[in-house]
Amino acid sequence: MSHPNITIMLVDDHPLLRKGVVQLIELEDNLQVVAEASNGEEAIQKALEFNPDLILLDLNMKGLNGVETLKSIKQSGAQSRIIMFTVSDSEADVLQALKAGVDGYILKDSEPEELIEHINNAMRGDLVISAPLTQVLAKSLRPKVESDSILDKLTNREQQILRYISQGDSNKIIARKLDIAESTVKVHVKNLLKKINLRSRIEAALFVVENKLF
Amino acid sequence: MSHPNITIMLVDDHPLLRKGVVQLIELEDNLQVVAEASNGEEAIQKALEFNPDLILLDLNMKGLNGVETLKSIKQSGAQSRIIMFTVSDSEADVLQALKAGVDGYILKDSEPEELIEHINNAMRGDLVISAPLTQVLAKSLRPKVESDSILDKLTNREQQILRYISQGDSNKIIARKLDIAESTVKVHVKNLLKKINLRSRIEAALFVVENKLF
DNA sequence: ACAAATCTACCACCTTAGTGGTAGATTATT
DNA sequence: AATAATCTACCACTAAGGTGGTAGATTTGT
After folding, report:
1. Over the stretch B171-197, which tens digit does the pLDDT of each residue have?
2. B89: closest CA of chain A, how far (Å)
3. How large is the angle between the packed helices A66-75 and A91-100, nearest 10 degrees?
4. Which listed residue, B59, B87, B112, B159, has the most CB atoms within 10 A of its CB?
């Protein structure tokens, strides 16, 4: 099954944990730990030296943290797939890692079989994520509840115009689309900015997308 | 354990499936199906009539689809928690439902015990999502690969300024932050807009957040 | 050491955005 | 029927954004 002989580098500042994972991995015929590192700098250097197929990277390390290390390794041109292997299920950590382009995010409290399965899936090209993170991810995609009330403050016309602003339209273009005068558009923009207490249409546009208002 | 006596409405256009789910649910002491509907319109009406604690809503129905029905029920002021119960694991469907504010998204091929557990968790206030959707959600949070190459076209300074633009800063403020003249900032803005072929800083800001560039 | 790219700065000019005010027409609300 | 809110429109003015050009200083690559 799965990939023939996958080479792996382990990055974690706890020797005991590395030992455990190595033992687990070496039980699999097709998996082989070819390098270990105990911090980010070492990881970056060894990634180039050993060019492993896959890197299991701890998130919380002294010195360079996981995300910084990840970015460096990616930038260095190494072809390794990189998986975060960490205890943190905090939204910020998960999102940061995803945005930095990890190929997987696995929690350390996963079952051993799960870890092995995830490794194999990652080498198949999947983006692997520990199942318990589903909630975390879903939440970050949801609109904030509070922001609804802000929309309520705006009249229909203002909401409509805010929608166009958040698409990057200029006042002139909005006027054309709504078939009203540009001066009228300006009035609405002025009023809606005041209502939601923002200083410019850019802030308004960013506000819309960040809060997923529409 | 968990909630005492949860009232549930089932919405699905397949009578057989409803039958099966009803039987499953009625096995639980604290769960009770108080209403069924076979389409969106009926669901909206009965949501108000029976005011169930929880609504299991099919996504693909004739007439009003699940998301539209969801929005209507929410707007009508019903207090019910609403869970999508569907076969679709497509990214578009999941995201649409989340943005519309569902309280859960459960796949129909879940194990019966899972469904029961999800229902109870949802009533505790959790956002419940079937585990197999983790990948789907994670992917939608990732930056698009192609957009990296666009960043490569920009010089360091231009990237830096684009970052500020995407935070809503004006040229004047950017100049202050970088301790350079506003006229210089304008030069960089002019050049970066030309390079990524956009017409205004708003489009640039939106481009950044939509592609999760930083 | 030289060329190319980048960063800096200024200028003039035009466009777009935002503010303050007035004011008529339409739509809800009471 | 009367009031309030909203939508429409215009004006004048200030601020901010964007374009085109020139040009010196610095960094990078060869």
Report:
1. 999 999 999 999 999 999 999 999 999
2. 13
3. 0
4. B59
